[in-house]
Specification:
seven-stranded mixed sheet, globular, 2 domains, Aspartate Aminotransferase, domain 1, 13 helices, 15 strands, Aspartate Aminotransferase, domain 2, 18% strand
């Protein structure tokens, strides 16, 4: 009989030469359980997705309840659907009052695509600026503003009139001009290994956009829904972007994303042309119900308080001569080592010892720590101890 592993390699399109190769049969809370019954602590939440834990009971109940009423009805924005309405209002209630209109999509890449179109439509401009080593998705438009040439070169030609600037470089902000439709920037730069913005930098971006009439698009696909210790990363900076993009942790494990702006800007998508942006499955009722349950779990249980408490624990426990730095904010952390080989060795040993970690796309000497927001102190300490054990074992091999 053909094994699941053989079928996986035969029929599932691969994106890397060495997949993680774990056969997961069940997921619950902060744990993944493989086909042999072994439990793994998930310290990456499916890359910042399972913010309220795997198979959160309230999220599962919301999915079941909604699936029994209706699932797909019509393309986005045509029928009045309670799950969409309740979710949109709940999101806007947590955002600055200027951000009062939500367009639901299926993923972070799609949220970025919608934001780019909205910026070009409302400004009449064509230039788009993003940052070196920024990741905003892999669809064609999102890829065009990715900040890494190695990932882009084999797919050119891409969108014209894009420009990259250096994150945290105040002088580079002068490249934002009256020709710029928008700058797309992360609240905290993720795939470069959690780069924290310098004091005043995000505010300076906002001020420069105001000066030249450029829209500021804040990418919160990874940082939204509690991961940084506040519900949105923008709260850490005291600014209001023109557009914010959301996904990943938004759905409690279900596929959903959104771009949020003002009703005034969003209304431009209704004319010249009509259906200026359209999606079939965006805001799917079951996904929207799951997302609302996820939002309520985070706010009702004050999960951001838990995040802020345990951030300190990770930073204090993850100290070792082989660690160059442990940095980040909330449950959005990275551990930096001397090189990729050492980091990959630690990651492999962590998995062997029952802790799942990962690396970053544009900084492969850094280990990712983005656990579910429900992680408790005991499991956090256990995770840190295993990581240190893995570092010790890797150090002996070098």
């Amino acid at each position: 009989m053909i094994s699941q592993r053989e079928l996986f390699y035969s029929y599932i399109a691969q994106t890397s030469p060495e997949p993680m190769d774990l056969q997961i049969e069940k997921a619950e809370g902060v744990y993944l359980i493989d086909n042999k019954g072994r439990k793994y602590i998930d310290l990456i939440s499916g890359i910042s997705v399972s913010n309220v834990g795997h198979c959160n009971p309230n999220v599962v109940k919301a999915i079941k309840d909604q699936a029994e009423k209706y699932m797909h009805l019509m393309v986005h924005g045509e029928y009045i659907q309670s799950p969409q309405i309740e979710l949109a209002k709940a999101i806007c209630d947590l955002l600055p009052k200027e951000l009062d209109n939500v367009y639901f999509v299926n993923s972070g890449s799609e949220a970025i695509e919608g934001a780019l179109k909205l910026a070009k439509r409302t400004t009449g401009r064509t230039e788009i600026i993003s940052c070196i080593n920024a990741y905003h998705g892999s669809s064609h438009g999102a890829l065009s503003i990715m900040g890494n040439e190695e990932f882009k070169n084999n797919f050119r030609p891409l969108l014209p009139q894009t420009r990259l600037i250096n994150y945290n470089n105040f002088e580079d902000l002068q490249h934002i001009t009256t020709k710029t439709a928008c700058i797309v920037i992360e609240a905290f730069q993720a795939e470069s290994g959690i780069i924290m913005p310098s004091e005043g930098y995000i505010k300076a971006v906002r001020e420069r956009c105001n000066e030249v009439g450029t829209l500021m698009v804040l990418d919160e696909v990874q940082t939204g829904f509690g991961r940084t210790g506040t519900f949105f990363g923008l709260e850490q900076h005291g600014i209001v972007p023109d557009i914010i993009t959301l996904a990943k942790g938004m759905g409690g494990g279900m596929p959903i994303g959104a771009f949020v702006s003002s009703q005034k800007l969003m209304n431009s998508l209704t004319h010249h042309p009509v259906l200026g942006h359209i999606t079939t499955f965006g805001g799917n009722s079951v996904c929207a119900a799951a997302s609302l349950a996820c939002l309520k779990e985070i706010t009702d249980n004050k999960l951001t308080d838990n995040v802020n408490k345990l951030t300190t624990l990770f930073k204090e426990k993850l100290k070792h001569p082989s660690i160059i730095e442990t940095r980040g904010i909330g449950f959005f952390l990275c551990v930096e080592f001397k090189d990729q080989k050492f980091n990959f060795g630690v990651i492999k040993k962590c998995i062997e010892k029952g802790v799942i970690t990962d690396w970053f796309l544009f900084n492969d000497k850094c280990l990712r720590i983005s656990p579910p927001l429900i992680l408790n102190e005991q499991t956090a300490e256990e995770s840190c101890a295993i990581i240190i054990e893995a570092i010790e074992a890797q150090t002996l091999e070098v």
